[in-house]
User: Fold this.
Amino acid sequence: MRIGTRLRLPATIVLATTLIIAAPLALSGCSLIGGVVNGATGGGGGVPGIGAGSVPKDFPKDVPLIDGDVQLGVGLGDSKDGKVWNVTIKTTDTDAAKTIATQMDGAGFESQGDQSTSDGSGAAYIKDKLTVVVVVGTSDKDIIANYTVTETK
Assistant:
């Protein structure tokens, strides 16, 4: 384990745990976010870095995504200082957390820990300069997977 990985591990697990607790609130806010973006753009999209219904064009190809309907895709930052992406997917996979773990392992990501509650689950993964935190939960009986990906320089 690299020194940088050891230092990021506790912070990543704390972040994942925090996201698990916040997931029900965040998931219920998906339509709120969509409404704000819709209102800000007059319903036509067009906010740089935000793609309702699509994965950002520069989303890292190394990160596998579960099959489903993309609800929101956001990319912020730049190649100089680092970048962060957030993608929310509505899926029909009733075992989404396990599917995602298998996909991440198959793509060469190292698990940094996971946590499950009755409300959902969260896990963190690292590969090279990418850190991925995935939260899976339900919203109005829909299964939602939220990926937060950071690229460090």
User: Anything to note?
Assistant: The domain at 3-151 is CATH 3.40.1000 (Protein Transport Mog1p; Chain A). The chain is about 30% helix and 40% strand. The chain has one domain: 3-151.
